[in-house]
Amino acid sequence: TTSPGVRRAGRLGANLLGVGAAVLQQDYEGALRRHGHDPAAAKILQLHWGHVAATTDEAWDEASPHLHHMMSVYQEFANASGGQGGPQPGQVPPVEDLRKPGQRLMFRPAVGDAEAVARVLNHSLGKTATTHLAMGMLPGMAPQRMTQFIERFVDDVVPRLD
């Protein structure tokens, strides 16, 4: 999601797929207003990538290689484009560094136990308008892990969302 893209969606009165970025939300709502559309009528889906496990350490152990792969692919796109309209060129930190506090990533993943994931999502939901929430599953994970993720998300995270 980029500023030109959200402004175009606002100009057209289209719904929005966001990634929890407050500045993009402001661009979108401003474009809606400027072009005669009611921001309160917009449908806004916020997409988050992550993984839920019994413990935060277990979640990161399971998710890190898959998260790293996905971020590396997106970073290659950004590097090839020179950062035009999206993430800036750069490098994805090594797998073992993804979970370090303060690590600069192209997006903040929601990885951890149910409480940690709910905290990340509630923070995002508190700063951006959201009518729909999508939780992206990380590519390449075993189907059994994905089933466990879905069950934990529904049973343990959703009840903690504001």
Tell me what you see in this structure.
With 162 residues, the chain is α/β, with parallel strands linked by helices. Helices cover 48% and strands 12% of the residues. The protein has five helices and four strands; from the N terminus they run H-E-H-E-H-E-H-E-H. The protein has helices at residues 3-12, 22-34, 56-81, 114-127, 143-157; strands at 16-18, 44-52, 110-112, 132-136. Strands 1, 2, 3 and 4 form a four-stranded parallel sheet that branches. The longest helix has 26 residues, at 56-81. The chain is globular, with a radius of gyration of 17 Å. It starts with a helix and ends in a 5-residue tail after the last helix.
Key words describing this protein structure:
162 residues; alpha/beta
